Amino acid sequence: MDDGKFNELGEMEREREKMESGKSELRMAMEELCLLSSRDVEDHQQEQEQEQEQKQQRSSTMDLLCVSKQLRHVLDEIGPTLLVLRQDIQQNIQRLEDLHARDPSKYASLTAIVTEEVEEGMSKKTNSCTRATIWLSRSMNFSLHLLESLLKNPETSLKEMVALELIPDREIFIQLLMGNCQDPEDFAGDVMIFISIVQPLLEEINTILVKHKLDRLKST
């Protein structure tokens, strides 16, 4: 089975699970990132060892792809008004996925991807995976700021927050994120957990870019 067909089946399975469980996009993202702490671990030292082992096995490339796909799903829910943004995200996801599929072990980390492109003189080219990483991280950063604003400014409309006329009303947008069976208080907790998960990834990306003096590309 080729990668495209496999990804398509994965998307279908994900949508089926979402419909059956009523889970929010944020909850789905957290579960896919495998960062929800286990409540069954009683021994604190054992828990720390498991967390350390998990960190060593993590793939920053897959983390970025996972979160970016969740953002794409949210845009799908909003509808065709943000189609161009959705297409841009998908193109950058596909670029990273294609490279990662060539050698998942070699390209497990974003550091490895960016470093290789820097050494080959490819990092600043418009079709580079470094550019794709920057573009996706910029979208993620915008999403985090939006989620934080939703919690901190409950009386402010989305249009006032982001100055975009194409996005839905605040209540509709929150309902899209919450899913069918979620309490508003649980949603607020999910937002905070999600931010705590994604923020270190954004910091890692920024560290990589600064190291290779590519951080200026974020503004281009």
Keywords summarizing the entry:
10 helices, disordered N terminus, single chain, globular, mainly alpha, 220 residues
Total beta strands:
0
- What's the alpha carbon Rg, rounded to whole Å? 18 Å
- Largest beta-sheet characterization: none
SSE pattern, N- to C-terminal: HHHHHHHHHH
The gross shape turns out to be: globular
Average pLDDT across residues?
77
Distance N to C terminus: 38 Å
Query: What structural category do the secondary elements indicate?
Result: mainly alpha
Beta-strand percentage range: under 5%
Instruction: Determine the number of helices (DSSP H or I, runs of at least 4 residues).
Output: 10
Poorly predicted runs = 2-6, 35-45, 50-57
Percent of residues in helices comes to over 70%
What does this structure look like?
With 220 residues, this protein is mostly helical. It contains ten helices and no strands. It has helices at residues 3-21, 25-33, 44-57, 60-78, 83-102, 110-119, 129-152, 158-162, 170-178, 184-211. Helix 4 (60-78) packs antiparallel against helix 5 and helix 5 (83-102) crosses helix 7. The model is unreliable at 2-6, 35-45 and 50-57 (pLDDT under 50).
Give a nutshell description of this structure.
The chain has 220 residues and is mostly helical.
List the helices and strands and how they pair.
Blueprint: H1 3-21, H2 25-33, H3 44-57, H4 60-78, H5 83-102, H6 110-119, H7 129-152, H8 158-162, H9 170-178, H10 184-211
Helix pairs in contact: 2-4, 2-10, 4-5, 4-7, 5-7, 7-10
